[in-house]
Structure formats: C-alpha cells, structure tokens
Write a structure and sequence with these properties.
By secondary structure, this protein is an alpha+beta fold. Helix content is 34%, strand content 24%. The chain has a 6-stranded antiparallel sheet with strand order 1-2-3-9-4-7. The chain has a 3-stranded antiparallel sheet with strand order 6-5-8, with no helix packed on it. A hairpin with a 6-residue loop joins strand 1 and strand 2. The longest helix is centred in the N-terminal third of the chain and has 35 residues. The radius of gyration is 18 Å and the shape is globular. It starts with a helix and ends with a strand. The relative contact order is 0.13.
Length: 202
C-alpha cells in the first residue's frame, strides 16, 4: 500500500514538473515575440486589459497563461496560436484533423483543462477548444476573466453554471450560449461532477 502511494506521488510530481516546463516554454516564446516587436510590458498589459504585474508573471512562466489571453497575444503579434503552443509554424491551410484526445493542452489550472482542436491550421478566424471543468471542493466561486471578442460554448457533458457580468446561467448537456467575452466570465461544474464543453473563441 505504501509503495503504491509513493509511486502515485512520484507520478504527480513528474506531471507537475512537465507542466511547469511547458508553461515556461510558452512564456519564453511570448517574451521573445514582444521583445522582437519592441513592445513594452505596459503596452501589452494595456492591450490585454490586465495589470503589468500579471502580464509579467505570464512572461516569467510563474503563472499559467489563459487560453483566451494566448489567443489575443497571437493576434497582437500576427502569428498563429500554434506557434506559441509548440514553437512550430502551422502549415495546414485547407483542413486539419485532430484525433480524439490528441489536441494540444493549453491551460493547466486545477479546475480547467483546455484542449486546442486546430493548432496546426494557419490563419484561423477562431480558436476551438474542448474544455474540461472539474468540480470545486473549496466552496468558492471561480475567478473570472475577460478578453476581447466573442465566445460560443456548447455543453457536451455534465452541467455548468456560467457567471457573466451580473448574471448566472445554468447550462445542461446539449445547451449552448453565445456571449460578449469582454464581460468578465467564469464556468463552474455542478453536482460534484466533471463537465465538458466545446468553446469557440472569436
């Protein structure tokens, strides 16, 4: 029993280390693009509508960069989001296929997992993700974020409460919502069960 616990603990530590390394790689690409473009941290923070301190944490790799923020950074530098995620130029311009479970993982916060479904396609007009939301155990409401543009969510599994502006909307499997992402929003899985939805950021 003790050896099984030790093995599981080692696997958790290795997973966290791998996630941290990937996060720092993405952060380094963002910083390099900003410096090559001769744009200050303050300018980028203002463009993303966040504080310079938070943006600096993103570039230092000490804080996960939300998928919506990566999307805006890619647009600012006129590069494809796939370049930020993998360091490789995207080449597909007619179509791209993403097999089940093979999308690039973007965000690794405790309650959210984003899987990019089109990172290899060049010059995208939108970014599609499968988002998995784990139920909270601390009893607190999820932290909100906002980003320019619009967003479409379609619930694939479970139930979700969407907090947006001053509203709370319950969404069940098969429901969908289209909203102005400039308003602060957050998602919460309900009934103590994992929820999953398709998100398209435009």
């Amino acid at each position: 029993m003790r050896s099984e616990i030790s093995f599981n603990l080692i696997m958790i530590i290795l997973t966290v280390q791998t996630m941290t390394e990937k996060m720092k790689e993405i952060a380094a690409r963002v910083r390099e693009l900003r410096e090559l473009s001769e744009i200050s941290i303050e300018e980028m923070a203002n463009h993303l509508q966040i504080s310079p301190e938070i943006y600096q944490h993103y570039e230092e790799g000490t804080c996960d960069i939300p998928a919506s923020v990566l999307y805006e950074i890619a647009h600012k530098f006129e590069v494809d989001m796939g370049l930020l995620l993998t360091g490789e130029e995207t080449r597909m311009h007619i179509f791209t296929v993403t097999r089940k479970g093979k999308g690039v993982s973007v965000e690794r916060r405790k309650q959210y997992k984003y899987e990019n479904l089109a990172e290899k396609f060049v010059h995208k007009k939108a970014e599609p993700f499968i988002v998995t939301v784990e139920p909270r155990t601390d009893g607190k409401k999820p932290s909100k974020n906002s980003h320019p543009g619009q967003e479409f969510n379609y619930i694939l599994e479970g139930s979700i409460k969407l907090y947006i502006h001053k509203n709370e909307v319950i969404l069940e499997e098969g429901d969908s919502i289209f909203f102005d992402a400039g308003y602060e929003h957050a998602m919460e899985a309900l009934n103590g069960k994992t929820a999953k939805f398709l998100a398209i950021i435009m």
